[in-house]
Here is the input.
Amino acid sequence: MTDLLAKFDGLIAEHAGLLTAGVRDPFGIVMEKVLGPTEAIIKGQHTILLGTYNYMGMTFDPDVIAAGEKALREFGAGTTGSRVLNGTYQTHRECEDALKEFYGTSHAMVFSTGYQANLGMVSTLAGKNEFVILDADSHASIYDGCAMGNADIVRFRHNSAEDLEKRLRRLPPEAGKLVVLEGVYSMLGDIAPLKELVAIAKAHDATVLVDEAHGMGFFGEHGRGVYEAAGVADDVDFVVGTFSKSVGTVGGFCVSNHPKFEILRLVCRPYTFTASLPPAVVACAAASIRKLMHAHDKRARLWASTRQLHGGLKARGFRLATETPESAIVSVLMPDQETTVRMWSALINMGVYVNMSRPPATPAGVFLLRCSICAEHTAAQIETVLGRFSDAAAATGLFREAAE
Amino acid sequence: MSMDRAAIYSRIIELIEPINAKGVALAEGTTFAGDMELDSLTVMDLVANIEDEWDIVMPLNMLPDLETIGQVADAVAKLVK
Here is the structure.
């Protein structure tokens, strides 16, 4: 019998090689206790969490927990069914109502994960002989949505308005086109020049979908995302988002004013052919979304902590992926895989959890230690983190190597 | 037509040289993933350069069928026609 997993032997050897070097496994973290949005116990050690995307710190909000507990008792542990059969409860409808209110749209559709929202929207909107035009640095869920659908896929250079224009110009003018953009790109933490990109897409009669997974809650007047801050809401046809970041639970969604939007519930396979979210989850999400409408204090605290971390790391000599803090993601550039793993390992041993990111998840062969900030991080926690980053750099000889 | 194909092929070789980190001998049958060990991102960046060179559209969904340099040259020759 052919071992079907033999194709992964190279990766197995690489991963094993990393661990024999005596470092911790960056992809094998278990949180034994979660003390709150910013702290957990990992291997018995008190650890500051700086890589959770829990931007608004809603995971332990008392109102969110109460809403979830109530729904769990009243509606049970799960729906055991599809949204279009037995899986839409009053809780799901109320969650979609909260989204419509938050985004000011006439329609909202809740998926079981953010991944499925992109998978479903991208694969369903553009069909055969139509085009999806996507940014080169798009999230895996967007690429997978392209792979699942029947459209022709055209990729433009990351955040380049000029490149998008050039590629749109090459397409047949009469063909259906979907331009897929993200407000915040989660690897480098950079934001998209949506004003320019959306204008070009509209000049070529394209439909525009923007993924605001990493922008919801703290960009724009209502916290809708980068597209709101950029003032292009009227030209964006579909906004995709997630509950697993600022909202603090799990799930995905799409909101829109398109008059025919509701038909998507019947034709979008990742929506139709899977079980709906448990009532407790959507009840948590609805409570959280309603609180995020007025979370101005949290937004201010999140930006303050982000500036503190970005500025502090820069002052300590770390190379960062963005010159200024553009989003609540601060990515530290690393020279190579081995140094990245040793730095990551030193940090976790000191009680700081960040994300380790490497190609092909990252663009252009970049190795990163990725930090995401939470509104609940205190200035003292960020100071502690900064000190530990310096200690880890000293222990691993990061700056010595970089200087050579 | 055959001259066009030859010119396209040699220009593609020039575009590939800078990413030929393994120093593989480049020929019609050289494969991107197998012989050159290029990851999917690098291949997609190469496609962007090829598109710009000839002002054509090579959709990413074509890529699974384009395993060798020769196959890419054939595809480009068809698209520029």
